[in-house]
Amino acid sequence: MTIMEEAKRGIITEEIREVAKAEGIDEEVVRRRVAEGKIVIPHNPIHNPKALGIGKGLRVKVNANIGTSREYVNVEEEIEKAKVAMEAGAHAIMDLSTGGNLDEIRKKLLEVVYVPFGTVPIYQAAAEAIKKYGAIVDMSEDDMFNAFEKQAKQGVDFTVAHVGVTKLSVERLKKQKRIIPMVSRGGSIHMAWIIHNGEENPLYKNFDYLLEIAKEYDLTLSLGDGMRSGAIHDSNDRAKFQELLIIGELVEKAREKGVQTMVEGPGHMPLNHIEANIKIMKTVTKEAPYFVLGPLVTDVAPGYDHFVGGIGGALAGYYGADFLCYVTPAEHLCLPSVEDVRQGVIATRIAAHAANLARGIDVEWDKEFSIARQNLDWEKMFKLCIDEKKAREYRQKRLPLEEERACSMCGKFCAIKIVNKYLEG
Amino acid sequence: MTIMEEAKRGIITEEIREVAKAEGIDEEVVRRRVAEGKIVIPHNPIHNPKALGIGKGLRVKVNANIGTSREYVNVEEEIEKAKVAMEAGAHAIMDLSTGGNLDEIRKKLLEVVYVPFGTVPIYQAAAEAIKKYGAIVDMSEDDMFNAFEKQAKQGVDFTVAHVGVTKLSVERLKKQKRIIPMVSRGGSIHMAWIIHNGEENPLYKNFDYLLEIAKEYDLTLSLGDGMRSGAIHDSNDRAKFQELLIIGELVEKAREKGVQTMVEGPGHMPLNHIEANIKIMKTVTKEAPYFVLGPLVTDVAPGYDHFVGGIGGALAGYYGADFLCYVTPAEHLCLPSVEDVRQGVIATRIAAHAANLARGIDVEWDKEFSIARQNLDWEKMFKLCIDEKKAREYRQKRLPLEEERACSMCGKFCAIKIVNKYLEG
Predict the structure, then answer these.
(1) Which of A126, A155, A269, B59 has its CA 20 to 30 A from that of B290?
(2) What is the pTM of this model?
């Protein structure tokens, strides 16, 4: 039985208990929301990761994407990225490898990753189709479903399925006349397949079969976002919402079958589109957990997209997004390095924490920090920093000379010291 | 005559014309808003900087703080910071020096800074009081006003005056019981002076005299924010709003006298407080230009405060803040380096641009960028990047091998290439 099926029967599973404890929420509330599909706990018993809740009323979570490309295959580096991402506080890891021995890479990563582990099986189906048939579009329906089943069997906790890229949404996309029609790799594979073969997307047409696979392994489905906007100009358009409407129907089907499901979101999106996007998504999916990439609030800052995505992610989290997919500084430019991964996770954790604070969650962390600041208790502050090492390094660069408890910016002009003397002394 | 006085008489000055042209707005609209005090153009004829408009309907602008501390005095480095900040796109520079020969440093900086140049004269008054009397609180009223006049005479375009730190707001602050009562250096100097001397803040009591000085040099006053919150927990509280109410009255006085005035804002503030803060500020000041520091949306990320302030700044700009004071990664830890200054400016420019896009300004920039992306026109993209050098460096790190126009993340799986082939080909 899946966690969702157990929850529907009123059972508080071990995972539900762990999530409730970690979030400081009543177990029964978590159970009910899992049963309703408003919280997911991606947890394939074969992998058995740390229990992580994503969804209504919980902390905003952070996902880090890693993985080889067809051009750069260095498995040790990807393992290092996974470890660094988890150390930096990523709540989940997705392996998006497209180069090298994909099964072997996944196996090695699953051995070190102790948080929920996600994949995009269509990448493997596509990579194999190139080898087998010479073209992605010649893959068979079985090739697609087999990729999902193989990966679930290996222990993957959640997988992306681009079920909303269908004949209908592709038609809407054509009429949309976007600047950049599509930036989702998985989406473009399905779109090309649909056009080339003149057939409906098998993952949509035979969604019930996908649900059977998911159910067998308690694989959480992440219904993605082939139509996500890749340009500010293309944000919140008809193509995107067409896909969302299709996905909304499939979320209900999945819930009926007891399969945990979340929904993916954009993409490139100006600040003024974020609130509406999230409210509409939450309405048409009846509060499915929302997994957003960024959103990136401008197109023009490659090299800083971890930050651009952090601005959008903070706002998205505040308005109700549940799960932020990080972006690294290398986004749009090249495969990220280990340090890029670290920077991406930290930026996204800051965004998630800013959203949590705005929702009234984890306010004690900042309160404790500020009490330490008022006391000029540097050791305590460092220990509470989101990146302790970096903060210590900065302070060491220019240590204060005249007032050792102040900092070298203000020295004797430290407002806190003046205030302590006059206001309180 | 000040620009505001001329504007009141219906005159479109050269500066108004330049601002209107730069912003793509009708000259008459800019003139009227300058006359009403809804737009300021900080411009001391002695310095004669590039005309810069700040306020209603204009692009969100970015200010970079530089300056020596009492502990680290390296004038050449500060000059370098000013140059780097302007190259990176800062619209204004503030010299917050507190160490070394302040007049000499300011003179040298004014020679290289071609954008509006701001200061906090009370720092100089305080530094001199330590030398002269051994204690900041022993400075005389004349010492304070003389600092303003001397700096205006030197060519400073805008100065901070902490006129809202008064007996009344200090009383409210005491009753507030904040975690961190005060983090503003200027604010703490005035507060200490008020308590020590049992007298009202001279800048408040004799505000008319400050206006006379300002009028003589067309010095723009930036009414700051001694009560800004230095902790998320202390955000949007009674002490802050008490100060704002006092400042609102003084804004009206300044407008009557034809003195250009803007108002400063927080500080540390959770995402969910930003909209209300800005709407209230805009209401009680009848739409004075709003100059915000950050806001910083969490306390716990020293080392990343440029990013933390960027999240808050983007949202603040979207809701109506006009002028973002950058924060560097060194904030709260030490005096920033040249590279910290550059990172601070770029992060804040990204935030300002995200806000502009959300207000419908400069959308063509992103549109042009995305067209170049769709065409995989890398040269064009690099030229449109907010930091061209950084983007080029990243792409060079791992150049694509199999598909030279793609990037090394996706290679043959480049969605844009697949889409071009199937959707459009």
Answers:
(1) A269
(2) 0.96
